[in-house]
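TEACHING EXERCISE
Course module: macromolecular assemblies
Task: Read the component lines below, then compare them to the predicted structure of the full complex.
Student: A.B.
Group: 4
Components provided:
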Amino acid sequence: MLHEEVVGRVRAMLLDGEIPPGARIPERDLCEKLQISRTPLREALKVLAAEGLVQLLPNRGSRAARLTDKDMRDLFEVCQGLEALAGELACERITDAEISDVADAHAAMVRHYGDRDLLQYYRCNRFIHEAIIAAAGNPVLSGLYESVTARIRRARYVTPMTPRRWALAVQEHEAILNALQRRDGVGLSHILRAHLRHKREEVMQAGFAETAPLEQARAS
Amino acid sequence: MLHEEVVGRVRAMLLDGEIPPGARIPERDLCEKLQISRTPLREALKVLAAEGLVQLLPNRGSRAARLTDKDMRDLFEVCQGLEALAGELACERITDAEISDVADAHAAMVRHYGDRDLLQYYRCNRFIHEAIIAAAGNPVLSGLYESVTARIRRARYVTPMTPRRWALAVQEHEAILNALQRRDGVGLSHILRAHLRHKREEVMQAGFAETAPLEQARAS
DNA sequence: CTAGCCATTTTTGAATTCAAATTGGATCGT
DNA sequence: ACGATCCAATTTGAATTCAAAAATGGCTAG
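Instructor-supplied answer key:
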């Protein structure tokens, strides 16, 4: 197994919650689960610690990082900034074909909204946002965006969505597509910022913070 | 030596150019220079690779990453986005005392401009930008900014500055301080974007890209 | 019966060891 | 003499081993 693969596997376990936030990570167990020795696993853990997904405690091993309300706010704020930037750049660089792809995804998303199919709605939603990032043609930006969104994804897609919020989100997405088609970079960046701000308010209000998960439930 | 210390030492060597861009990194040599074994060094290299400072070649070791023109453009663009975001947030959160610090640094910077003391000018310049980032009160943002600026720092501060450009930069900094004192977030973010765009044009025009460093000069 | 202390065990951190891949050079063939 | 191929030596990647730190459990004393 390649180094990057180990990092990817462990990252997925953290993001999927297979290793829950705050849980200790016993190297030995993970090693045999992944069928590797401790050396490559420890390399991966250090990389993930630098990404903010893992917390290293000197001489006491590592834990899955836990997001506080503040962390969540900070991540959303940065995400807002990155998407706004991506929106501006995308309007300068996106091709007609790419706009067409986004329009298709948007149409599909609106259909799923009509069906109240939240899962498929989110799939299209995510595709659209990622397409805008990709259209910015800036790998540094893409990398940071990927890293930031990965950490808030669960919160973003698990928070219950009220009919009121959902309708607003769809409306905002109409504006997003519109600005993109007009290649109105400044307009798009404003809409994206507002869109993310609303999403953040939604998530923060739901109080998703990964606080105090109790070290471990102990069977008595 | 602690893990983070190893990462820091090697990062410094890369950023200072002690290990020049494109140079191969012989693990063995670095190990004895740092007085550690290969295991912790390799952990550090993988972390630095994730940061984009080191390029890992499977089964062929690692090299100090080399920035192309495109990389430089991408990094500056992201930096622009981050500073713009920080500017907006800072205007909401900065204290009067912090504004006062920035004003002092600005005054000192203008004096150094008058003396044509580029080194001291840059010191104040950097302090101001970092103070704005810090005032945003967002550690995620600070971390990304630190990582991005570190990679372009040499280009940013080594590019020769024409009198024309320098005067413009000082003028822009006047506007930056002014917007900050008025707590005009939108205005500040616009000025910062323009400021960074000009800096980027300056650097890109100077053609700083770290291209073709010749594998190694060979004494015949 | 509880609290505090010490020995044991477990787990982490790092050096060493071992295997695999690559590189450079030498030999052989054309 | 030139080129291809094979072998040795170096270097990388990962497992194992060793040492140090922390957690655990038991023991004794109050």
